[in-house]
Amino acid sequence: VSTQSTGKSDKTMEEVDNIILVSLRQCGCHLPKETAMLDEFSVELLYACCAKLLRVIDDSLSFPEHIPSEETMSSRFRVCTNLATAVGQLGYTGDIGYSQFMYPNGKETRKILSFLLETMPKDEEEEAEEVLGPNAIRNRAILTALAEWASKPWFPHQLAEPYRKFSRLHTCPLEQPMDSDASLEREAYHRQSLALVSAQPEHPDHVMPSILEKLATTQRTLEEVELDDSTGQDAASSSRHVTKSKGRICGAFKSALN
Fold first, then answer.
1. Rounded CA gap, 251 and 239, in Å?
2. Which pLDDT does position 204 carry in this prediction?
3. 242-245 — which CB contacts under 8 Å span 24+ positions?
4. Residue-wise DSSP of 121-140
5. Of 146, 122, 138, 120, which is closest to residue 52 (Cα–Cα)?
């Protein structure tokens, strides 16, 4: 049992250390790529990270980017003491002094870096997330997504993304029964052999463009016929022809859809 507990504890520490290392890199701390645990932090690396975080937290603080060399131990003690004082003034409640920086260990390093990262200034969105909690944040995200979805125009599936970007309109000739083809042979052909308009194009995406083209052609033909028929007639007769033309167009449209 103790072995299992130790394994879980080590795994938890690895996860915590990984989070801290990622946060340090995001804050601009230069860490060696091979650094995977806080136990591996040297005096120089711990000092550089803490000095960087303190300068971000309070820009009035002034610390050298690098700790003085071992040849000047008195300068090292003085800089580490000033560093510990600054951390303590921020509200750190653990043991803090020059020894935590001069002789680092994983446990103390983890506590100090966690405190400094939590003390880092946060923007308004991060502060609001902490106050609201996860449930309120999720609800707000849902409402935002719904509002964004409702504000976008609706398109049929065939016209929506990604179809609108890459699809081109293709048409093909459509055959449909006409009044002039009222012979028994043509009627038998229309009933037994002529495919539906939706089945005549080779690709389903070509159906609607082909119907629109057919309707446009039919309307143009009818308008030309009506224009010729209305020449020399009075306005009333022309109006009747226009009405008749509209009726034919509607009939053609219904026929194409059926």
1. 18
2. 82
3. none
4. ---HHHHHHHHH-HHHHHHH
5. 120
Q: Considering only CA atoms, which of 80, 128, 135 is closest in space to residue 104?
A: 80
- The CB-side HSE value for 190 (13 A sphere, CA atoms) comes to 16
Average pLDDT, rounded, for the chain: 76
Q: Within a 10 A sphere around the Cβ of 54, how many other Cβ atoms?
A: 20
Q: What is the chain's percent helix, strand, coil content, to nearest 5?
A: 70, 0, 30
CA distances 74 to 61, 69, 77, 257, Å, are: 21, 10, 5, 93
Question: Are 19 and 27 a contacting pair, CB within 8 Å?
Answer: no
Please tell me the distance from the alpha carbon of residue 84 to that of residue 77, in angstroms, as a whole number: 10
Least reliable range by pLDDT among 4-8, 86-90, 96-100: 4-8
Which secondary structure element, helix H or strand E, spans residue 11, and what is its range?
helix 2-26
**In contact, 237 and 230? CB cutoff 8 Å:** yes
